[in-house]
Amino acid sequence: MARESVLTFTERGIYCPAGDFFIDPWRPVDRALVTHGHADHARRGHARYLATEGSAPVMRHRLGDIRLETARYGEARRIGGATVSFHPAGHVPGSAQIRVEVGGEVWVVSGDYKVEDDGLSEPFEPVRCHAFVSECTFGLPIFAWAPQADVVAQIEGWWRANAAAGRASVIGAYALGKAQRIIAAVDASIGPVLTHGAVEATNAVLRAQGVALPETVPVTAEVKGKDHPGALVVAPPSALGTPWMRRFGAASTGFASGWMRLRGVRRRRAADRGFVMSDHADWAGLNAAIAETGAERVFVTHGYTSAFRAWLETQGYDAAVVETEFEGEGLDSPEAVADSPT
Ligand SMILES: [Zn+2]
Ligand SMILES: [Zn+2]
Fold this sequence. Notes:
Blueprint: E1 8-10, E2 13-16, E3 21-23, E4 31-33, E5 48-52, H1 56-63, E6 68-71, E7 77-79, E8 82-88, E9 96-102, E10 105-109, E11 131-136, H2 148-164, E12 168-172, H3 178-185, E13 193-195, H4 197-208, E14 217-218, E15 232-235, E16 251-256, H5 263-269, E17 273-275, H6 283-293, E18 297-303, H7 305-314, E19 318-321, H8 334-338
Parallel strand pairs: 3-4, 4-5, 5-6, 10-11, 11-18, 12-15, 12-16, 13-14, 13-15, 16-17, 18-19
Antiparallel strand pairs: 1-2, 2-3, 7-8, 8-9, 9-10
């Protein structure tokens, strides 16, 4: 009898026949293993969830009263005929890759990942495997990130100049991950850091679980720009250009995203400044991470899948594209929408 594949790709998501569970499924299932709390991975409607301890609070915050079990990084669990474990993905605090072993064969699902240590997320750990299911949101050579310290210095320079000119600096950043990364990294001596409600709600969840974030001032109805001169305001991208911004008076807008590498996107975004900062691996990061797994088979998902698959074939991998129902963190993705002000 031909041995069943460790993971299969179904219309509900990635499925493990030996363990009868799904990974990041996009339709309701009985048992979902979830890599992290972003909306395109942690969806409503599953009967049971399993995720890391670090992802659980934000999943409960976003999904409400779900039946959720937690695992520590590296802790092996038996589910049916499969052994599963979660390993740091370096994407956002608590994010994980999921390792699945059946009969000695190991497959790893990356979820979203980045290889640079952002100082806040548990740093990415390569996991040896036979087959690797990798995201490739930024799987083109033009996506090459500068070190985080350089991008933070650019943000600080923009913030300082605005403060000196009496303008607020409003930066658009996803409410889970990017926002906290900026808050934690910038030099707070430049001025006060204000937060949009969607960002502050996530900050509160992360602080409660022990993530060390500097002090921030939540923007409430009473907060006026003139009360906080020279402020850096961290808001979800969807808040830029809305009436919510009026309270800050004269303001410069910035947007922090890997997509800012694309000039056309920068223009369409109508932000004064684009900062190329992503919570995903760049081209070099993807290639390094894949090489470190030692995998012979690579399945690619999210982003520039066909180009990236073709590239991997030239590098000697047995590569294939996995179709997903929804795309990841594009500008109009479910993730961006989910991070809208609420
Ligand atoms: Zn994500
Ligand atoms: Zn994603």
